[in-house]
Write a structure and sequence with these properties.
The protein is α+β, with helices and mostly antiparallel strands. Helices cover about 25% and strands about 30% of the residues. The strands form two sheets. Strands 1, 2, 3, 4, 5, 6, 9, 10 and 11 form a nine-stranded mixed beta sheet that branches.
Amino acid sequence: MANGKIQLHGFNNLTKTLSFNIYDICYAKSIEDRNAYIEYIDEQYNAERLTAILEHVTQILGARILNIAKQDYYPQGSSVTLLISDHHALDEERTARGDLLDNTPGPNPEIVLAHLDKSHITVHTYPEYHPDGGVATFRVDIDVSTCGQISPLKALNFLIQSFDADIVIIDYRVRGFAREVTGEKIFIDHDIASIQDFIPEQVRNEYHTIDVNVYQENIFHTKCRLKQFDLDQYLFGHSQTELDPDEAQMITRKIMREMDEIYYGRNLPWSP
């Protein structure tokens, strides 16, 4: 061990993958409102904006973009894929990014031991709505896969705050191994007890959270659900003052049921 750093035999071959699902839920009262919501989401999160978000993620990771592929779909939805490569974070590049790296939890990409020509970031969007009308759900599916010292956990804070997230479901896994000069294998090269440790406290406090972790396999799973519920924040094209109390209660129940089903991963019965 030199300067407190583990000496490796060859490259750091650890693959770290962050899978990130964000759900935004709303209630569109009429077919016209529903279609307007889908169009709004499609415009807000088109391929251009998603590309800008992923480019910022690349900066946070201290990586370099090698290639970008992006596509808007008809009638709705977008996909973006970035192939990224690691580079050392030079002083002038750190200055240009300000304290972005320092204020983002997770291992810093200062000492990278592998060329990341196989690393990638992808995002797909899925706007959809209930067949009986009313509830509409927008899902963003993001995968950040890196090799070597860089960990995609550093991008968590930025990604959560880049979208209107009612529910966030996160998976993180470290695969493969690197080898020390002594021949011993390294199956994980950073400390982690929970994905929540890499979400800033002020953001984490906004959500109810559940962890399901398999520590011996380096598999970590966290689900987050927004604590505060304000019906006006979920109505598209209308406000709560336009609804009678019974209708407001019914809509609230529908939205809460949608959130429960996503959060717990199962269909729930509807009782009148």
